[in-house]
Amino acid sequence: MTQTVAADRESEASQDNDTDASVASIAEEAYCYGLQQVIFYVTRFNYTQKEDSDVFVGINRLYYPNDGRPITADFTAVVTPNATTLYGQSFLDLQDDPIVIEMPEVTDRYFSLQLMNQYGIFPLYAGNQFNGTDARSYLILPDDYEGEIPDDFAATDVVQAGTKTLAMLVRYALRDPTDESEISYVNDMQAQTTITPLSEWLENDRSGVPRAEQSVVPGDYETIPRMTELTEQQVENQTAADFFTLLNLVLNDSSMSLIDDSRQEAAMLERLEQVGIGPGLEFDWSALETDVQEALTSGFESGFERVRATVVESNSDVVVDMNGWNVVQNTGDFRTDWLTRAAVADFGFAGPDSPASHVAGFKFTDANGEQLDGSNRYTITFDLEDLPPVTEFWEIPIYDAQGYFVENELDRYSINSYMLEEGLLHTDGNELVIYVQNEEPDDPEQATNWLPAPEGDMRFAARFYGPRWSVVDGSYDMPEVVPVEE
Fold first, then answer.
1. What's the CA gap between 103 and 84, in Å, rounded?
2. Can you list the domains of the chain with their CATH numbers?
3. Residue ranges of the chain with pLDDT lower than 50?
């Protein structure tokens, strides 16, 4: 009898262990599956609902970082922004009406309009490298739209969103961030960029309503008690309880249409149902048994480490090595490639889902394989006959270890190809040498090419806009980050 009881207890313990392992496995997979959507959800809250936020503008209204001036270290709404374009950002809500986006004619520089859904999929890439430089009006239709479509729009400019909420990004290149007339010129193009619900567009004589004339309409989306705390460095700050509660909100948000024809997504939703997460379900972390909370936390932590490792480690399936720079391999199909989707969301939220627009090369270590540290000095040396091959521009921005700009005396956060073209950098012997260090170099020529480094650990996220294929596949000989011998 005693042996039977002991055997039963051993069997129950084994079953419990199997259950915990299964829950942890679901949690790890769910982290990769849902990180992009959760970041989207919280970021949308920051822009549309958090009224004391620096980026609050409501729905369907553009936010211009730093009031339309170049981005500085004060901007922490997203990780690894670029410093070579002036951004416009918005979250569109198409639940009540389609949206009309108007863009001005731009003939002398890079510009782009991009729309991204909660899955990190881009239903629209527009701009000089995609469809020319003429002024254009785009009609954005929500999922299952059955209303009339005005004849004003070319078929190529009618976008089937496939959902009812989108992030919008507008970029205008800034060739010289120190030139006030240049900044004013770009600001004028920003002012001509409008977002208008279709009904208002029709009432306004088929014309967009300028941002300055728009009323602020806050978003109306479910929140969690810790929402306001998660808008800064949200990936680092969120707990397992936060993540899974938010993921359940995502899956029950009427503005976020599921990918209903994806077998892989359907299978994931079936697995999530086992832990009480999914459409039509209410998820309450505090009501879970302690062992379930622990298993979910274990899987959440494993997912976090797995996503971080995919970009940091050059031998992962998500990146290719470009002479020590890790180039993310955006597949153009985030419907099923959850790990790449999560990595892009973590290291560069709102980065493109394909290399058609631009790609990023991440760098965490120097040429000797040591962690980049602002207490050291480095050089990056370009051969002027072998600069990064792009159709638009390239940029080498520098960040702290979490991916944010750090204040410096020059307000300089990157070195880019425009600076070279405009004669703002020193070259010698057919070389461009970038000097990366915390303190300004004593040599005036070196100071001209100085990229101020933050104190402590740091990283790069080089940008290649309009990349040639040698950048995409990593065969370009990108210069290493070489420590200076003391």
1. 20
2. 23-41+221-311 (1.10.3360), 59-204 (2.60.40.1610), 313-483 (2.60.120.600)
3. 5-14
